[in-house]
Amino acid sequence: MTTHQPLDNAQATAYRTRVTLLGTSGGPPWWDGSDRAGISTAITVNDSVYLIDCGEGWGPRYRKAGLGPAGFQKGLDDLRGVFITHHHSDHMVDYPNLLLLAWHNGSDGLRQPVQVYGPGDRRVLPPIFDETNRDPIPEVFNPESPTPGLEESTARLLQAYALDINDRMRDNAKQDLREIFEFHDIVLPGTTGDDPNGDPSPAMEPFEVYADENVRVTAILVDHRPIFPAFAFRFDTPDGSIVVSGDTGVCSNLVTIADGADILLHECIDMDWVDSLLGPNSARPDPNLMQHMLAAHTAIEEVGAQAEAAGVDTLVLTHLVPGNTPVEKWQQAQQGFSGHLVVGEDLMHFGLGEPR
Ligand SMILES: [Zn+2]
């Protein structure tokens, strides 16, 4: 077993395979006193980069991390794949930036179209939380398509920017965006997940989403109820394996997909913060809502046992909620985990395999 220590940009380039934390905060709020960007991670193998989630601020971090060539209208040249774990805004809000700014930041240098994968249509509306106490009952937004998947969401986003897209193609001779990106809804195997309002993460084996000469990417459903589908991804590379939990409560599928991984990047929530918002001594005690938040996320006290059960070498905490909880507090996640724990910071890299 090797442990993986955080590296800076220069140290990281010695490794053929590396993970880069672009943004490490979770949740849509802007956290006071935190300069963590929104959740986003990059995995580099040889000279191909795979991006996981597009939280707020991923683009400038991508550039600062040195993941592509520097220079005017350069940067995304090595991007090969994009994988969205689930359709919550904090994971997607800077996805339009990827589509619209690629032209101006390196799409000319791409060696092939970027393959973009994300959850498909939920098909069924999520239940109304605490419905008996709700007045008014919320009206369905966009009832003709209230739960779109990645392909449809992308088409609608691009429609919204049609003027810019036509302008750039006609006035600046930019390449057709439809040749730069290819979009894919992730198809669940067999009858898995047929009831999105039932068990959101029925026991299953990881299934293949994507493969090329650098990586094999597999996915599994995790428990981020009522969001469905919500995925964890595993990247198997020639130098080892990396698992990205996405957002999840304690969930056996996460242990399944993370089995024996070299690096597990896992979300985490500070329960004391939840308690201060909704606990019995808070201004607005709400045990139901508290339970609801807990089911969808993994507490500091719980994450170590997940990593231990999976037998991972290094556990890296990311998607930290709230983004301004002190590092010393997150370090309590070592509890129940005999491996190496790192509290993630933006722009940390980790190398896999031997340096070149
Ligand atoms: Zn989420």
Automatic annotation (TrEMBL):
GO terms for molecular function: 3'-tRNA processing endoribonuclease activity. Residues 40-93 form the Metallo-beta-lactamase domain. The keyword Hydrolase applies. Gene3D superfamilies: Ribonuclease Z/Hydroxyacylglutathione hydrolase-like. CDD domains: arylsulfatase_AtsA-like_MBL-fold (cd07719). Keywords: Endonuclease, Hydrolase, Nuclease. Pfam families: Lactamase_B. The keyword Zinc does not apply. SUPFAM superfamilies: Metallo-hydrolase/oxidoreductase. This is Metallo-beta-lactamase domain-containing protein. It comes from Gordonia sihwensis NBRC 108236.
